[in-house]
Amino acid sequence: MASYLESEPPSPGESSGDESQGVEATRICEKMKLNQRLAAKELVNTEAKYVHNLQLCASDIRSHLHELPQGDLDVIFSNIDDIIKVNSRFLKDLEKAGSEEEQISLLGNLFLEFQEEMENTYKVYCACYNQALALVETYRKVPKLQKVIHDVITALVPQACASGLSFLLVMPVQRVTRYPLLLQKILENTPPDDEAYEALQRATRAMQEVNSNINEYKRQKEIATKYNKLEHLTVRERLARINTHSISKKTLRLSQLFKQEAGIVTRTEDREFDDLEEKFHWVALCVNELKSNVAAYLDHLETFLRIKPYECDLEMEGGAVQQYCCFTRDLHLLVFLEFKQRLERLVYHPLHHLSKALLGPQNLIKKRLDKLLDFERTEEKLAEMGSMTYEEEAIRHTYQALNSLLVSELPQFNQVAIQWLGQILNTLMALQRDLAQQVLQRAERELGQLPHSHVSDFDFRKLIEDTLDKTSAQLQSFCQNFQKVLPVPVRQPLQPAAERQVQALMSKYSPSKLYQVTSNISGSGNLALTLQKGQIVAVLQDRDIKGNTSRWLVDTGGYRGYVPAGKLEPYQVVPHDKPSMQSGSGDGFKFLPVETPRSSTHVAMPVFQVVAAYPFVARSNYEVSLQAGQSVTVLERQDKKGNPEWSLVEVNGQRDAFKNIILRRGP
Amino acid sequence: MSWIPFKIGQPKKQIVPKTVERDFEREYGKLQQLEDQTKKLQKDLKKSTDADLAMSKSAVKISSDLLSNPLCEQDQEFLNLVTALDTAMKRMDAFNQEKVNQIQKTVIEPLKKFGSVFPSLNMAVKRREQALQDYKRLQSKVEKYEEKEKTGPVLAKLHQVREELRPVKDDFEAKNRQLLEEMPRFYNSRLDYFQPSFESLIRAQMEMFRGQLAMELEIQEKKP
Questions:
Q1: Closest Cα partner for A478 from B39, B195, B28, B117?
Q2: What pTM was estimated for this model as a whole?
Q3: Contact B30/A315 with Cβ under 8 angstroms?
Q4: Interface check A416 vs B, CB under 8 A
Q5: pLDDT tens-digit profile of A132-180?
Q6: Smallest CA–CA separation between B1 and chain A, in Å?
Q7: What pLDDT is attached to residue A613?
Q8: What gap in Å lies between CA B152 and CA B133, rounded to an integer?
Q9: Region labeled Disordered — which residues (chain A) (predicted)?
Q10: Residue in B with minimal Cα distance to A327
Q11: Which residues lie closer than 8 Å to A415 by C-beta, 6 or more apart?
């Protein structure tokens, strides 16, 4: 019986179901085709409208907003022109297709063709979109400019006036995200056996890929900006950022670092990145070193410019001195000053900016290391547990984004930095060249007026040497002349009372110890005497108890005390009845050659100790005065020219330790 | 040159005529100013040459630090550039050193020698002043005795004092005359003395920059 039911032939309803199935299938097929066509048409139409609006925005609206600064307009509209170009071409190709069927088969391939271009243009626009929005927002707050924007938009795009510029700017962002959706709709309504199916499928996937790439790119850019901003935080802001979350984050990182250092955990080696980082480090080192060296050079230049030898006044009109002063003043105030300013502007400031630009990447590299530690921790966890929380996924993504950003951008940065450095160095050399040229120009002019301009450098040097030798000899003679204005030891005849005092002193001490006070001495302190000028005293010791040789112990005949040695002069006792001997007639001396080979401390030649029989008055620097009975030591029996009438002797008891004199000897 | 001390109608202490004294003051004043200026010039020149040397030394540091950076090993172009800069700086330093030596020899040394005459001059002027004081003192003594009653002992004293006075007066006169002769001569000698030095100063600068420019142009031509 059961089989009765089964073996029954298909009921008429079923056969009609077959039929209806076929009709159904066709209907569905028709519907699908219709939907497909509609979707395709929607795509094409919206594309046309989109491009039209874009052009409106870019050309008309932007050109009317000339009240805004160009820089801001660039930020707001960013690379909208590129987008227009790409999409216009896309639209044109789309409209080339004749029938609708052709269009659909064209669609897929066209998208694949344009995929890369679209990705490159849209990713730039989308990355800048936030910034553009922020700028528009700030303009909204400025009523006057906001009104201008509003008016322009109302005139050109009436339906958008309510939301303002932001409505228009969001169009590309919306469009690129719609492509996958539109394509999906067409795909749904395309039978799999359709020739265009495969292309459409690939196109849909391609556009989805484009969108995710744009997202990734945007995220990278955002990370870079975020960490770049960090360096501008003040201390207070930094402190405010410390909370339990950040502390725990940092502690975890630290522990990871320790684990690596201890070898518990292997460190991820990234050769490529390490090389890049090393190069970056060298670049940074180079820039900073150069900057500080140039700063030092500028300092020295400034010091040099502050010194002004040309401001001397030797009361010499004209001539080389005047020329020199003018020349050097010009150099300092014009040529060197200009050199310094150019150096600052063209070398130091660029270096300074370059150095600042280095801070961003440096910060990012630091952050990457931190994120790497986090990443490695999550890797561990992944190995252990096989899954991650949402947070951990985020950490991984951050690290990967940062890493890929650095790897892609650092080489370029290094390259640009090195190029910049090269240019700066070239500038430095060019500046030196210019300086030399300018100085020479002026110097050549001056040289023409100098007396020896035709003389070569080498000859001039010889000439100068000779001249200087001559003038030096001249100076010597001046010096000697002035020295000849010598004190003729003026002996004033003494008052009788003083005379008696001198006699008293002479009876106690040898005449060589007698000194005369040359100027009034006022004593202060221990045992210091107060003496008048002209008083005669006898020196007991040429140093005081502390060994100070500028204070001598003297005896005035009544008192004893200390006086400054500088105010004492050796005194010659002259018997009254002897006229002063200035004429230098032959005075005889009788020698009592006492040949006690007195060992004179310095002179290692045979010396005699002689006693002067008669007094002698010196007439010049090279002669010394003697008193009768004064003992002297003969050092040489002849004078320098071999004249036996004069001898070189050494006299003790003078204020100077040795006074070599020429002594006239009699027969 | 003899001047007679006026006893009648003049203040007692006036023994040197105002004109002579004024001349002396003027000449000495000029020389004092010259002394100050030469000292200042000498100091400034020394400081200037020191600063000059410091500058070129720091320029050499710029290029040698660059040369020691590892970037030079990696980038051939950079290396060429830095080597060129280094050569330029080092040669400039050599030129500069030579210039400073030349200046030292032909300007600063002579200035020093010139300045060394002044101490002797000042001593001589002091001694003249001393002699003048002695002279004045004795002169006033003579005048004092002359005014007294001409008694025997007074006359004897007067004679004695006059005897004392004479050598002192001669001494002062001699000193005064000598200085009045020598000072203007010395002052005028500065013209002949300084001109060559300053000429040498300008030429030394020129020599250096000429050499430097030639070298730098040579380096520039060598570059590709």
A1: B117
A2: 0.59
A3: yes
A4: no
A5: 888 888 877 877 777 777 777 777 766 655 566 777 888 888 888 898 8
A6: 18
A7: 59
A8: 29
A9: 1-22
A10: B202
A11: none
Percent of chain A whose predicted confidence (pLDDT) is above 70? 75
CB pairs < 8 Å spanning A and B? 208
Q: Per the CB < 8 Å rule, is A314 touching B167?
A: no
Select the highest-mean-pLDDT range: A139-153, A253-267, A566-580, B19-33.
B19-33
Query: What is the predicted pLDDT for the residue at B59?
Result: 92
In this prediction, residue A301 has a pLDDT band, given cuts at 50, 70 and 90, of: very high
Residue of B nearest to A326 (CA): B202
Say if the Cβ atoms of B210 and A327 lie within 8 Å: no
Amino acid at A344: E
A486 vs A126: which has the higher pLDDT: A126
The structural domains of chain A, ordered by start, are: 22-228 (1.20.900.10), 256-449 (1.20.1270.60), 496-570 (2.30.30.40), 609-665 (2.30.30.40)
| Closest by Cβ to A468, choosing from B110, B191, B217 | B110
Burial class (CB in 10 A: 0-12, 13-18, 19+), A308: middle
- A590 and chain B: CB distance < 8 Å anywhere? no
How confident is the model over A514-528, as a mean pLDDT? 75
Residue numbers in B near A583 (CB within 8 A): none
* Beta strand A631-636 pairing with A646-651: antiparallel
- Radius of gyration (C-alpha) of chain A in whole angstroms: 54
Q: Which amino acid is at A288?
A: N
> Do A286 and B71 count as a contact with CB atoms less than 8 A apart?
yes
> Of the candidates A307, A418, A432, which has its C-beta nearest B216's C-beta?
A432
* Alpha-carbon distances, residue B169 vs A234, B20, B173, B179, B183 (angstroms): 86, 15, 6, 15, 21
How far is B171 from B135, CA to CA, in rounded Å?
Answer: 9
Which residues in chain B are closer than 8 Å to A471, comparing Cβ atoms? 110, 189, 192-193, 196
pLDDT score of A663: 46
Alpha-carbon gap, residue B174 to B128, rounded angstroms:
9
What is residue B186's predicted lDDT score, i.e. its pLDDT? 86
- What's the confidence (pLDDT) of residue A594? 39
One DSSP character per residue, A52-76 reads HHHHIIIIIIHHH-TTS-HHHHHHH
* Whether B117 contacts chain A with CB within 8 A: yes
The whole-number pLDDT of residue A621 equals 62
> Alpha-carbon distance A86 to A55, whole Å?
12
ipTM of the shown complex: 0.83
Distance CA A648, CA A652 (A): 13
Q: Is B11 exposed, middle or buried (0-12, 13-18, 19+ CB in 10 A)?
A: exposed
Residues A608 and A623 sit within 8 Å (Cβ to Cβ): no
CB of B118 within 8 Å of any CB in chain A? no
Looking at the DSSP bridge assignments, the partners of residue A531 are A521
The verdict on a CB contact (< 8 Å) between B65 and A483 is no
Interface touch B213/A436, C-beta < 8 Å: yes
Whether B112 has its CB under 8 Å from any CB of chain A: the answer is no
Residues of chain A contacting residue B108, judged by C-beta atoms under 8 Å apart: none
A107-137 burial code (b ≥16 CB/10 A, e <16): bbebbbebbeebbbbbbbbbbbbeebeebbe
A470 reaches B (C-beta below 8 A): no
CB contact at 8 A, A601 and A588: no
